Amino acid sequence: MDILLQQLINGVTVGSVYALVALGYTVVYGIIGLINFAHGDVVMVGAMAATTVAVALVGADPGGASAWVAVLGALLLAIPLCMALGWTAERFAYRPLRRAPRLAALITAIGVSIVIQNIAMMVWGRNYLSFPHIIEPRLYQIGGARISLLQILIIISAAAIMAGLLLIVHRTRLGTAMRATAQNREVAGLMGVNINVVISAAFVIGSALAAVAGVMVTTYYGVAQYTMGFLLGLKAFTAAVLGGIGNLGGAMLGGLLLGIIESLGAGYIGALTNGVFGSNYQDVFSFIVLIVVLVFRPSGLLGERVGDRA
């Protein structure tokens, strides 16, 4: 039971990050029906930028750089940078293809992903960047398991951000415009909704979530590298499909479930296979889940609610 509880804690922590990234996929898909496969690389840019800022702040004051100052500085750079990146991709790569076949937009998204990866490689290089260990490694006991201060911060922050997004979508004029555009773009335009602004806002909001997720990832694992967005993006896309892509609640549920499934798989795969496979095979579970969902329930656990999907 101690191992089970520990793996559940680890799974909820990682799943919270998956949920934030999955929400970026869901918000964009819910409005324009595009799977933005470059979204994972936006997370990578946020992680790399955050690491650069944290290292610079710690290097400038090696004896007393506050963890909160370093993390806040990382967020203050990562979030605007990723928002600008998302807006640029929508404005110059996706908007001209808005009336083109979906395959054209999908291929363009893959191309944008490759471009972002190569730019990141030129800016930061091929090597891994290490995030400084500035957050106090304080541990708390829960039964026979342990949860760190960083894990608590990630879970609480992700929950607050997800609640804030729901409030924006369901309690603001922008959210009303987003839901109207998701239902019928042409009619919403005739009713006075600025479609271009709404779609750009969806990309900007999704990119801001990606930036926060990138900061969480690099602080949790301690490293960042220019190729990290590919696998993370695929896992978040799996989470969105698992919950029901186009459904905000589904993205949150899918992210948490995928994190728990992956964590439990990593914890028990060795015992189940008599040591043939180790925890390094945990990524396999994400793609097994994707295949199973696509075969048996393509609409996801909560389904795609078209009228409320954004």
Q: What does this protein look like?
A:
44% of the residues are buried. A hairpin with a 2-residue loop joins strand 2 and strand 3. This protein starts with a helix and ends in a 14-residue tail after the last helix. It is mainly alpha-helical. Helix 1 packs antiparallel against helix 10 and helix 10 crosses helix 11. The chain is built from eleven helices and four strands, in the order ααααβββααααβααα. The longest helix has 31 residues. The strands form two sheets. Strands 1-4 form a two-stranded antiparallel sheet. The chain has a two-stranded antiparallel sheet with strand order 2-3.
Instruction: Profile the largest sheet.
Output: 2 strands, antiparallel
- Distance between the amino and carboxyl termini: 39 Å
Q: Report strand %.
A: under 5%
Mean pLDDT reading: 89
- How many E strands? 4
SS-derived structural category: mainly alpha
Can you write the helix and strand succession as a string? HHHHEEEHHHHEHHH
Report helical residue fraction: over 70%
Number of helices: 11
Q: Which ranges are low-confidence, i.e. pLDDT below 50, for 5 or more consecutive residues? A: 305-310
Summarize the structure.
The chain is built from 11 helices and 4 strands.
Structure characteristics:
single chain, 310 residues, globular, mainly alpha, two-stranded antiparallel sheet, disordered C terminus, 11 helices
Helices and strands in order, then pairings?
Layout: H1 2-32, H2 39-60, H3 67-94, H4 102-124, E1 129-130, E2 139-142, E3 145-148, H5 149-171, H6 173-183, H7 185-190, H8 195-221, E4 223-224, H9 228-243, H10 248-272, H11 283-296
Antiparallel strand pairs: 1-4, 2-3
